[in-house]
Amino acid sequence: MLDMFSCKILPIVCVIGSVSVVSLAAEPIDIGSHRELFVDDHVIGKIEGDARLDLQQPVPRDVAVVTSKPWEGNTCAYYTVFADTDASGKALFRMYYRGSNYNRKRRDQTHRQVVCYAESRDAIHWTKPKLGLIEFGGSKQNNIVWDGAGSHCFTPFKDTSPNCRPDARYKALSQVHRTGRPHYAAQGEMTVFAYKSPDGIRWTISDGPLITKGDFDSQNAAFWDPYAGVYREYHRVRVLRKPGGEIVVGGRPAYGGFRSIMTGTSKNFLNWTRWSEPQLIEYTDDIGEQHLYTNAVMSCPRAPQILIGFPTRLLPDQGSRVEPILMASRDGRKFKRWDKPVIPEDAPKDRKGNRSNYMAWGLVPTPGNDREYSVYASESYLSGTDTRLRRFTYRVDGFVALRGGKRGGHLITRPLSVAGGKLQINYVARPGGHVRVEIQHADGRPLTNFSAKDCDPLEGDEIAKFVTWNTDGIGPFSAKPIRVRFEVKDADLYSFRFVGGRLSR
After folding, report:
1. Please, what are the domains in the chain?
2. How does pLDDT run across 324-375, given as a tens digit for each residue?
3. What's the rounded Cα separation, in Å, for the pair 132 and 141?
4. Secondary structure of the chain: what % helix, strand, coil (to 5)?
5. 85: which strand partners?
6. CA–CA dist 395, 405 (Å, integer)
7. What is the DSSP code (8-state) at residue 111?
8. Residues in Cβ contact with 23 at an 8 Å cutoff, skipping those fewer than 6 apart
9. Are the beta carbons of 95 and 427 closer than 8 angstroms?
10. Where are the beta strands (DSSP E) in 6-90?
11. Position 183 confidence tier, pLDDT thresholds 50, 70, 90
12. What stretches of 448-481 adopt beta strand conformation (E)?
């Protein structure tokens, strides 16, 4: 029934031109005590001097999973990873992926597609438990959790909504063809069904589709957005822009168009009705139309007011190469894309083929290391007898850096309303470099005692460092709108936030 559901960073330079300071009469942006990152232009007023925004690459680590079992194979894909806890409250990381294999000589699948499961205590070393649930090759001694409709791109998540029912603590979306045809059915025959599980292992499927507008033949992500208080879903669709400007979405008429992304929201995971129907996402950048798969959109850790995604860009005119990029949004619909790949095809190997460089959905903290996140990306698709999923690491908040060169430069924010009198930053200063901060009135005048000259230089490498001015780090910042001027010289700044009680003059 449908109602059953009640580190070291490798920089790629990505230079943006100077952003004009908004008018002095502009309404301030209320950031409260939220941590702000530089993944978009939301708080940026102007960047000047020897400073720029640099897209960061995660550092490649060890291989997490090799799909060498008979029920897995060389076309395993659509990995999902998220953090969880076991019954005793200990950390448990869950991974789901498609088990499939293709015989290139015969040009067909060697076995039915299944959904496989792995788990880890540290997000580094993974095991494949023998679950005893589903028979394959005459035995149930395997890690298969689902082999019914939707096995092609099954994408689970843990529901953290306060209203989530225990029997649906884990949910998933996946593509189901109404006709049973395996690929490229007509518009309306491709659908998304919902799934639920009390334990992440035993799953049941809804009686009917949730969403029918789209193509859905890649990873269809969904999650609870705690900041907005809604469920969000993102799925793939083909879009054709005709010469007269008409946009055709989905179905055979759109063949030859661009692979794009649609989104919808729901209060109850059943009715995606914030908009009358799922809508195409829009872009605030000037990159132009690109083919995007496997959107991998999620809430940004440590900054829940921001959504980030790692969609896979397909380059059909370059041998169908694929590479993940970064995009970010404040409302879930309008995204800023970064043009450079976050994981290039040589990081570190076996990523040059089609489908060989997909990011997994999910970004998790590395236990025992509060300075990094773990992310994952596939490699070696269809190139041998199996595929691999490799772990990569990001510095926390380290998706985009405000990078200052040897001559130094600065960023001035738009007018901000903040919720505290102490400023905390995440930065690294190279030898001889520093970060200085100036707090300004909205009109650009420095606050008395909080100019850049008054600021104690910040050196070294800190994840959560409080800024001080003449040994005092508490200011009247919440009294009225302010601007923040970040001076960076041979240094990278990743995030900032104001904390503490509201103070007044």
Report:
1. 7-57+400-499 (2.60.120.260), 59-395 (2.115.10.20)
2. 999 999 999 999 999 999 999 999 999 998 899 999 999 999 999 999 999 9
3. 5
4. 0, 50, 50
5. 91
6. 20
7. S
8. none
9. no
10. 10-13, 29-32, 36-37, 44-57, 59-66, 77-85
11. very low
12. 461-466
What is the rounded CA–CA span in Å between residue 322 and residue 320?
6
What b/e string do you get for 235-257 counting C-beta neighbours within 10 Å, with b at 16 or more?
bbbbbbeeeeeeebbbbeebeeb
The residue type of 394 is: Y
List, for residues 110-144, the tens digit of each pLDDT value: 999 999 999 999 999 999 999 999 999 999 999 99
Q: Take residue 65 and report the two structure tokens written for it.
A: 């999973």
Q: What CA–CA distance (Å, rounded) separates 136 from 141?
A: 8
Q: Where are the beta strands (DSSP E) in 178-283?
A: 190-197, 204-211, 221-225, 230-241, 247-249, 258-266, 279-280, 282-283
DSSP state of 446: B
Q: Is the CB of residue 143 less than 8 Å from the CB of residue 131?
A: yes
**DSSP state string for 353-414:** STTSSPBPB--EEETTEEEEEEEEEEE-TTSSS--EEEEEEEETTTTEEEEEEEEEEEEEEP
Say if CB 404 and CB 489 are below 8 A apart.
Answer: yes
Predicted TM-score (pTM) of this structure? 0.92
Distance of CA 95 to the CA centre of its chain: 16
